[in-house]
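Researcher: Structure for this, please.
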Amino acid sequence: MNSQKICSPGCINFISQISRSFSKSCARESQKKCRLLVIGGGTGGCSTAAKFVRKIGAGNVTLIEPADTHYYQPMWTLVGGGIKSLDDSSRSMKSVIPSGCEWIKDKAVKFDPINNTVTTANGTNVQYEYLIVAMGLQLNYGHVKGLLEALEHDPAVVSNYWDKSLVKTFPALQKLQSGNAIFTFPNTPIKCAGAPQKIMYLADDFWRKNGRRENINISFNTALGVIFGVKKYADRLSEIVKKRNIGVNFNLNLIEVKPESKEAIFAVTNSDKGETKSVKYDFLHVTPPMSSPDALRESTLVDQTGYLNVNKETLQHMEYKNIFGIGDCTNVPTSKTAAAVAAQAGILKTNLSAVIDGKPVQSLYNGYTSCPLVTSYSKCILAEFDFNGQPLETFPVDQGKERRSMFLMKKYFMPFLYWNGMLKGYWNGPGVFRKIMRLGQ
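Model: Predicted structure, token format:
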């Protein structure tokens, strides 16, 4: 007797209906529509999403971000110096995405601005009316030969820009008794141009307090030709490194790390002969080369440098008027910091709101950014400046001077302001306070 059972016509029809229903369900799942789409769950993405949930209503804003954890990265200098813990700098992504904003936990991989569509890694096509690109920067550790291997296997090679390496930094500072300590700056734009120096100053202070500094040679090897891009603060930092006997070597870009022989290989950037320089290290803090994320860089949204092509003052895309950008992934010519994002967020909110309301954009960003330059375990220089590299200081004092008050603000007030004000869309930078404190200047 044949054990196979033949389905009746009714059964076949039922299975066919189920199959069609499932297929339609999958199709609906892979197609989404929203009024405003935000790409990136970092500082710029979360703060602008919060603003527009209030502006256009819950259910009208969608955010694409693959990470489970949101980090307050400006704190990572303090984590590397043993002042704060990594946990102090983190919150769950779910907790910082504003209520009323749909979260697609996925990665944006393709942009189609002609059809107002973004495609995610899982194949979801999200159609939007308006788009905010807030993707941040991509850390390209693999662009330095041997660096990933060194970060994994050599306890003396660290980097404050990556959470997995960040936790190695303070133990490495504690362990070093003598030798060469090298801090690097790459030949690309980076997050917070002052950060590669901040950890160096903390290391110097730590080794002094522990009686080891005379046995440690500290060098800052930078691919740039200046110690800092704003003259006022560059002059003050030059005085500090001279006073503390820190060597500064310009035009040196790290291209290779050899952990087996403890060598760091640098390209001489102002040489047309392909010259390199090898330096022995006993401690090596690396700032990796960075770029806009691959998916953005390979799209039609970028300029020739690979960054989102926006008007530097209005933050509106130069070609697609329903697209705006914020933060590190844009080609806005200012230092890439959380402070810059705060100032940009207010401009973006005003201008995108105008576009939504059918009005012209009018609010203009002046390039304001800030970099709290931590110079010891108790002092900080609060650098604030504009597009032209001119100081744009908030307080009625000389902020180029090392101050304990600025350090305490960096350590305690700024994190509080970040979690409770900025990410919730309530902080647009200190512009209003600057006018009050400087009597309208």
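Researcher: Any notable elements?
Model: The chain has a mean pLDDT of 93. The chain has twelve helices and 21 strands.
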